Amino acid sequence: MSFFDQMASTENLDTEGAEVKLDLRDQDRHDALHTLDHTVKYCKKTSVKTLYIRFNPAKPGEGETLFQPIARYFKVEKMNGYIETAIPVMSKESGGMYVKFK
To answer: Are the C-beta atoms of 65 and 76 separated by less than 8 Å?
Structure first.
């Protein structure tokens, strides 16, 4: 499935049914990435299958969101074989990423 097909099917994701939910809204980048790293280690250790991460959406004049650093983090996790997919879930109220572990 291509990236664009995944983006088109984000309405079908059960973000509220994710086993672990992580809210990084209103956290600075350093603290958010530290929390993300600890949460992902917990997920791998306990064999969690799904993780939903929320962060602040992009707004004009506010600079970079957490989307790029989180996406880079999961790119490495995917290359190392720990995750199946990491799908962006964006809305006006919140940015997010839905992750399925192997």
So the answer is: no
